[in-house]
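Standup notes
- HV: blocked on the assembly model, inputs below
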Amino acid sequence: MKIDFPIILINFKAYYEAMGRRGLELAKIAEKVYKDYNVTIAVAPQYIDLSLIANEVEIPVFAQHVEAFDPGSHTGFITLEAIKEAGAIGTLLNHSEHRLRIDIIDDIVKKAKKVNITTVVCANTPEVSAAVAALNPDMIAIEPPELIGTGIPVSKAKPEVITRTIELVRKVNQKVVILTGAGITTGDDVVAALNLGTQGVLLASGVVKAKDRRKALENLVKAIRGRK
Amino acid sequence: MKIDFPIILINFKAYYEAMGRRGLELAKIAEKVYKDYNVTIAVAPQYIDLSLIANEVEIPVFAQHVEAFDPGSHTGFITLEAIKEAGAIGTLLNHSEHRLRIDIIDDIVKKAKKVNITTVVCANTPEVSAAVAALNPDMIAIEPPELIGTGIPVSKAKPEVITRTIELVRKVNQKVVILTGAGITTGDDVVAALNLGTQGVLLASGVVKAKDRRKALENLVKAIRGRK
Amino acid sequence: MKIDFPIILINFKAYYEAMGRRGLELAKIAEKVYKDYNVTIAVAPQYIDLSLIANEVEIPVFAQHVEAFDPGSHTGFITLEAIKEAGAIGTLLNHSEHRLRIDIIDDIVKKAKKVNITTVVCANTPEVSAAVAALNPDMIAIEPPELIGTGIPVSKAKPEVITRTIELVRKVNQKVVILTGAGITTGDDVVAALNLGTQGVLLASGVVKAKDRRKALENLVKAIRGRK
Amino acid sequence: MKIDFPIILINFKAYYEAMGRRGLELAKIAEKVYKDYNVTIAVAPQYIDLSLIANEVEIPVFAQHVEAFDPGSHTGFITLEAIKEAGAIGTLLNHSEHRLRIDIIDDIVKKAKKVNITTVVCANTPEVSAAVAALNPDMIAIEPPELIGTGIPVSKAKPEVITRTIELVRKVNQKVVILTGAGITTGDDVVAALNLGTQGVLLASGVVKAKDRRKALENLVKAIRGRK
């Protein structure tokens, strides 16, 4: 699946509001908003809901994490083959709530390329972003962990983190897509992230826990449309 | 869901043969054999297939692992609430391929009781089995890791491990159900496990990777029926 | 080395105040107070100071942690053989700041017996204490983690945790020594811990970070002497 | 301490042959060979022997691992402050036997700079080497894990791994020193490593487990001297 940018990537985390039936509803809202506004929206549901959601919606579906190893004797872990068969086109990796060893990220990214799964590797600092860039994932999401879930957007609170990330990443890797994460809630936040030079946002609570989730999403895509 | 013993609990692991459509097929075979022979068969599919399988079959469905924490900001992890909403009635824990900290097992077992999820905690030695018993899970599966996946049944190769486990566990906990794991493939293995005093078996490759999975399962339940 | 009870076991942690020369000073104070009052005091210095301290003082010296594996190809880890050769007579295990897998605790305790190293396994709840007891360590230290470092002694704030621990542990293991940890600072705290039926205390900041460390230790041992 | 290159860095691991008194002997041999041949030799003893060795020899002493956090409430872990106070001038990090999360490597490298500790970060592939280079450590040691401890030198068995590592690392970082690890035993191996463009070697069993350790080390430095 080819992905158009900018992208809004919604991490469902282990939120109650995005679990089971409620996760499917949210994915359908995302699909509807995408169809109405033609701005790419992708969702990263919990493993348990991934296959159902991937079957029911026509927007990109990501896993939240995946292991490097091949299918086999591994209990309670999910392989690249499993998420692919379930309909995912990509996966988050190294989220601040699920940090990984550097050699494991390398392993997963290499194997993901072989099975055609898009990798979005999270990073907490400009230096880690550059390190991740050297591993050649498809996308990097820079997320200062102290801002995650705060509603304080990194694009406003620490724009220098974004610009420094872009600077360091581009020395290492010209192609990797850079997303802005952490604290993104409003259309202004998204526009600020794009204006700083990133190609999308990774967010979670700002949409998942919004009172009106459709409206929250529409605010984001309208701001993007307005910017074009 | 009340579980009748003896039980045959099939761990699908991350096996290719038990992933996606093939996992659903296997679950349906298990259901059919259960209906034909009235011996309890439970399945522990991969997270990704759990919800679909739980919806499609009327036998007990277990997760392969679960976290202690509540729904919330956790990326790439699955909660007790999520597996319950997906239709699981229980979960494996501390499998040799997914060992856990002692305090975490305590946390999960306590929380599982509150949300009415049955816990099957694996243990590698009689002493660890007794330790697990002190945490009051619903079941313990004793599995010497050196025999897992070998086809050499612990009930034959090391029967003293089973009898010693029963002895130590019963000093600590009169109620917990004890299962035999590791190397179980044939009806003889199952009968040996029951004759040693355990109330069922936990197995994986013996059924999942069998050429004729229905026949493999039927051999197990026939041996149990023959024994009664 | 035979240990007389009650025991005061001081965990030096990675505190600046107990590092290097300052750790040696503290160990010498502990030795002096032991000689003056004849109440057992043991110290658990950082690895880096363990050998020097064990050579310089005649009180029991513990490691803060140790691995299960034999000497060999392991980088940045410390074996039982290494702490023994350095002069330690025992080791802490599973501290709330260094939790371990249940099978690993079993491995280390079994191996420690063979090489004659005394094991003190920490536990956060009465149930985990009983589980640990089933693994047959020499001592268990019950430490509700929410009280560690607070100066609020578990023996006063949650005496029922101690009595429940003793009750559950004794069902499983008659011999294991039980220590009280978490929040112990004053002589009263120690006496309360002993009166509840435990045979000593595990503490850290209450002594290590005291303005007058000799006085802090003397207060503890005087209270024990006064109680006899 | 200024380090001259090329360097031979000996990882003592948790080897029995390099523990306690035997570790000190090995460090003294290294010092003597250094003085006789004027080729830089550094040692990375076990934590437990670090302070004694650093006091007794006048060659660079490294830790085998260290944590990112400040001195404080951490049980069984060693801080940068502790190894510095003990006399270490640097530390290994991310050895194949002690892999680290990417964000943790970033944390430790940044903090090590502040306290003036030299960092040698191990890497298993050219890509991971480049990623590590983006974190700006002082040195990188490229060690294909399948060759560690084999006596098959990477510089001969997989020279393309070294040349590719240099190529990728230099795109990211012009300054970082690159060492060759894995399978280095003979003087030829060292010369091959230097001829490929790296500035030294990281080895362990080749020296630690040699029958005649002085001779083993002399063979390495003579080869370097002969090359100059």
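- HV (later): unblocked. Chain D has a mean pLDDT of 94. Residues 21-37 of chain D form the longest helix (17 residues).
- Next: hand off to the docking folks.
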